């Protein structure tokens, strides 16, 4: 496990910049944390650091469940899920598994509500408050993600 203390939004952007250099199509990132903990902000920073121009607007896809970002400077698609509305339903038979581990990077907020379709290998990022700062904890499942964690 790797823990970063975030003091400012600029710290989140720096961390997204570091991580972006190690990501590629097919990667899966699971984002855990309470409402307002910084999952969507980090996703926005990461998409920008992957090369997206300012025409891509990254918002939480709470009502649509999935947002796809393509082109506009990105080398590969980014699939951004907010599974919060899938609580009690699950993601099976929704077609979402077609986006995981394919031609793009997949980021999942509230992954516990999609656990029925998620593979066993992923990078897990957990956002928690710790006094005046926010902790961003990284853990890895699978050798590919363990290498990314070591490189960070």
From TrEMBL:
**Keywords, ordered alphabetically:** ATP-binding, Cytoplasm, Magnesium, Metal-binding, Nucleotide-binding, tRNA processing
Q: Which family does it belong to?
A: Belongs to the TsaE family.
What Gene Ontology cellular-component terms does the record carry?
cytoplasm
Pfam families linked to this entry: TsaE
**Localisation per UniProt entry:** Cytoplasm
Xref: InterPro entries: P-loop_NTPase, T6A_TsaE
Can you say what this protein is called? Answer: tRNA threonylcarbamoyladenosine biosynthesis protein TsaE
Which BP terms does GO give this entry? tRNA threonylcarbamoyladenosine modification
Query: Which GO molecular function annotation, any one, does this entry have?
Result: ATP binding
Gene of this entry: tsaE
Keyword check for Endoplasmic reticulum: no
């Amino acid at each position: 496990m790797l823990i970063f203390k975030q003091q400012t939004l600029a710290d989140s952007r720096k961390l997204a910049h570091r991580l972006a250099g190690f990501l590629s199509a097919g990667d899966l990132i699971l984002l855990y944390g309470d409402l307002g903990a910084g999952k969507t902000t980090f996703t926005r920073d990461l998409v920008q650091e992957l090369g997206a121009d300012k025409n891509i607007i990254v918002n939480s896809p709470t009502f649509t469940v999935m947002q796809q970002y393509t082109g506009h400077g990105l080398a590969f698609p980014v699939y951004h899920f907010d599974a919060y509305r899938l609580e009690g339903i699950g993601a099976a038979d929704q077609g979402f598994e077609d986006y995981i581990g394919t031609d793009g990077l997949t980021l999942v907020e509230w992954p516990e509500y999609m656990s029925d379709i998620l593979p066993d290998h992923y990078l897990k990022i957990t956002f928690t408050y710790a006094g005046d700062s926010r902790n961003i904890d990284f853990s890895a499942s699978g050798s590919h993600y363990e290498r990314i964690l070591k490189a960070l």
